[in-house]
Hints:
The chain has five helices and ten strands; from the N terminus they run H-E-H-E-E-E-H-H-E-E-E-E-H-E-E. It has helices at 3-12, 30-37, 69-76, 85-92, 137-144; strands at residues 20-22, 44-52, 55-62, 66-67, 109-113, 121-124, 131-133, 135-136, 149-150, 153-154.
Amino acid sequence: xxxxxxxxxxxxxxxxxxxxxxxxxxxxxxxxxxxALGCREALIAKTLSFEYNGTAxxxxxxxxxxxxxxxxxxxxxxxxKMPAPDQVEALTGxxxxxxxxxxxxxxxxxxxxxxxxxxxxxxxxGGSGNTAVKLSLSELENASRAEKWVDVCKGWQEQxxxxxx
Length: 165
C-alpha cells in the first residue's frame, strides 16, 4: 500500500478521501504546490517534521510562515531539529515532500500553528510529492487529530488575510 493509499483510507474514516487531488506536477515544496494548485503559497499547509524524544513531531503551518526557534523551544521544551532527509520516512511514515498530518507513524503527534487561522481553506499534502488535500480548518483539525494549536512561527503576521482561491 502506498502512502497516498494509506492517507486516502485514513481520510475515508472522516468522509474526506474524495478531497485528495493527484497533481500533474510536483507539490513537494510550498512553491511547487502553490503553482500546481493555482493558489497563494500561504495557503499551502506545510507539514514540518522535527525530532522529538526519540520520535517525530509534526507541525502544520502556513506556507509563508517560518519556525521561530525561541517560540518552538518555549512550547516544546527542545530545540527545533529537523531529521536528515534519509531519516524522515523512518520517523514519520512519509518520504520528504509528502509528509502530511494524516496516517503518520504510530506515536507521532501533530500540532497546528496559528499561522493557518487566517484562512478558511488550506492545502496539506496527501502523502506523496504530487498530492494535496483541500480542507477547511475545522476539517484539518479534526482529521489530523491535532494535539493543539500552537504559536511557534514567525514571518506571516505582516501578511494580509486572504480567502482561499
